Amino acid sequence: MLRIVYRVPFLCAVLLICMLIQAEPCQAKEVSVELVWKLGQAGWVEIEVEKGDYQLIVDSTTRKFPAGSSLQVGWGGWTPVLRINHEEFQVLRGAVVEIKGINSGSLSVKTPEDKAVVYRGDLHLTWQNSHWKLVNRVGSEDYLKGVVPIEMSNEWSNGGAEALKAQAVAARTFLVKHTENGKKAITDSPDIDQAYAGKLVEGEASVAVDATRGEILVDEQSKQPIEALYSSHSGGYTEDAINVWGKSDANNVAHPDPFSQTVGGAANRWRFIVSAPVLGSSFGLGPVQKVELDKYPSGRVKSVRMEDGFGKSKTVTGRTFVRKFYPYGQPIREFAFLGSFFESRKMATSQDPLRKSGLTAVPQTEQGPLLSKLYSSALGPSTDSQPYGVYIFDGRGWGHGVGMSQWGAYHMSQLGYNYKDILSFYYSNALISKT
What we know:
Layout: H1 2-6, H2 10-21, E1 30-34, E2 45-58, E3 61-66, E4 70-76, E5 79-84, E6 90-91, E7 96-110, E8 117-119, E9 122-128, E10 131-139, H3 140-145, H4 148-151, H5 157-179, E11 185-187, H6 205-211, E12 215-219, E13 230-231, H7 242-245, E14 269-275, H8 276-281, E15 288-295, E16 301-308, E17 313-317, H9 318-325, E18 342-347, H10 353-356, H11 369-372, E19 374-376, E20 380-381, E21 390-396, E22 404-405, H12 406-414, H13 419-426, E23 430-434
Parallel strand pairs: 1-11, 13-22
Antiparallel strand pairs: 1-10, 2-3, 2-4, 2-7, 4-5, 5-6, 7-8, 7-9, 9-10, 12-23, 14-21, 15-16, 16-17, 18-21, 19-20
């Protein structure tokens, strides 16, 4: 009997021990992150080994690549080229370059236009379609340490530690959900998946990642990972997933969110002003004289119907309307269009020619010189007063509103709720499980 036991393969013995003591998951988890947020379409990239020992694999040739080593990859004409440790440039015969860790540390990566970003783990570079595609292969928990402080903030550790834990569980669940069923890669882009910025952003949020290690949210019936969606600020009411992506989800349903009220600064209350001519021209109309909003039960705008002073009208979805004025790539501020949770009102000027001709029933309201000259909150004022009036959109919240409100989670943490309370409040029919 003893001989039979000792002949059990080593891996099986390890798995047996794991099941008996219910320790951390035995299988090593690594994620492949396609770096498209700041390094997409890169023509030239410089990589330096900050710490650790690596191997550089080029055209089936492997060489040592210790700390202090550097690599430049670029192109000459239509041909990929590279330079190792400031040696002569050489033409890459193949299309793949790999930097693989022996004793992994960190790699500094930068393009001529941007500051360096530092990544743990390995790098896989592929020349395709006249640019370099970069993939960072990194342990899933190290990946999360580069996600949580970007999706929330290291500064939230003071009073918001439980919110950071909730964010860690949600981000881990998102990762597992979006890399299962044979999909091995995820991007670093917040517009596609979730934001990932590597090692330089690591800080106090890493404590939250370690404290919830391996924990994810699963559906209480199927026990499968849920779609753990989240956005910055719900505006006081979360949204049904079907109203944003057209697919119902029992784990992401609309409900009042009092914890997101009165917090969040500009994300809590914002205002966007646009002149009637600019509003109309944005959608192929003349100066808009009427705006009608069709709303979901949550209060978010489902569609916007606009009519100009000449009888022409157009209806667009709330999301299409927001995208027209959303401040992409700009700092978030009070006078910006941040989401589809808004009201609309018009303020006329004494110079409105359509009012004088009887084509509009907008009350005669005299306006101050600045408002009457405004193109929009984004475009600023004109030199002359704008006729036809202006529209004011008063809104709440920032983002799609589905799932967890990050500002609401922060407020709950400040009020003494723990991360399990937070996750239970924002996700329906879900349980915490270990991967």
